[in-house]
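Re-running DNA-binding response regulator to confirm reproducibility after the cluster update. Everything else is unchanged from the original entry.
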Amino acid sequence: MTRVVVADDQPVVLQGFAAILGSAPDLEVVGTAADGRALVELVTRTEPDVAVVDVRMPVLDGIAATQQVVARHPATRVLVLTTFDLDEYVLDALRAGASGFLLKDVTAERLVEAVRLVAEGSMLLGPNVTRRLVEDFSRRVRRPSPEFDALTPREREVALAAARGLSNGEIAAELYIGESTVKTHLSEVLRKLRCRDRVQLVVRVHEAGLVEG
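Result of re-run:
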């Protein structure tokens, strides 16, 4: 059973999302919060697997709350909610440690599936967000990262493909390898680069300037 908490300052949205997630047989909503500070306290009390967090909240915004949740409770994965897929705060949330983002007009089915994917360690990055990551990091001074030298040629290929936003299935098709092999390579890449999850891997690859915009 995947334990979930939901944070949003809009009561209707908060209650609606909690009801949708609670109706899934494999998900359990263990609490809700109306602001970022309440969310951090809630995560501390309940230790959920996934926190579904609105970006814009009072007292403590979703980005600051995400930073605190990830720092204090690394086992809890954060899925941020945003009104627009090009929300200026989305990239900040990803850098803060969120495992992905979801539009607030999402369908019930997609919301449930998104929580399941994040709980499994997958990332949720739309193509527009991936593109903005590329554009943002292309304007920065690239910092060489010696950890990348520890990757095998195949692991490097997998890491670069993941940084382009490809799914495991798409990476497998592009590299002509099995999807289980992709997962194995990704696990090794995350270990060698000391990345918490796939989102951090994407950020690290772009910071190193290994993907051109």
